[in-house]
Amino acid sequence: xxxxxxxxxxxxxxxxxxxxxxxxxDAVVPVAQxxxxxxxxxxxxxxxxxxxxxxxxxxPASAPPNETTSSSHVPLKYLIGDVDPAKDPKFARIPEKYLxxxxxxxxxxxxxxxxxxxxxxxxxxxxxxxxxxFRSF
Length: 137
Description:
This protein has a domain at about 90-135. By secondary structure, the protein is mainly alpha-helical. Helix content is about 35%, strand content about 5%. The longest helix is centred in the first third of the chain and has 18 residues, at about 1-20. The protein is built from 4 helices and 2 strands, in the order αααββα. The chain has helices spanning about 1-20, 35-45, 75-80, 110-125; strands at about 90-95, 105.
């Protein structure tokens, strides 16, 4: 028991000694500084802010959108997917040479563009195939 009391007394004295040191300073001391303070202030002061005394308001960033209505409409059958591409003149069959999937119909303009692109790719050694062209949904 005496050993425990002696150890407790020594621990208490060590704790009090650690806590009763001189008060730490609250001053902030820079350890390293990349630029002199005068240069930092000069850079901050030379920052060009917005000119609040301008007589004229700034021009708009872009022109307002054109609010004209479309001169054409999309038929409901195209919107809901009620289309048979084999019977519709807006669609064309993809040539067998370019087929890589089961969907063989595409919009006429898209098929023509794909054929031109595939021919150009073939001239450079690449083979392109249309895998999934028309979907009615």
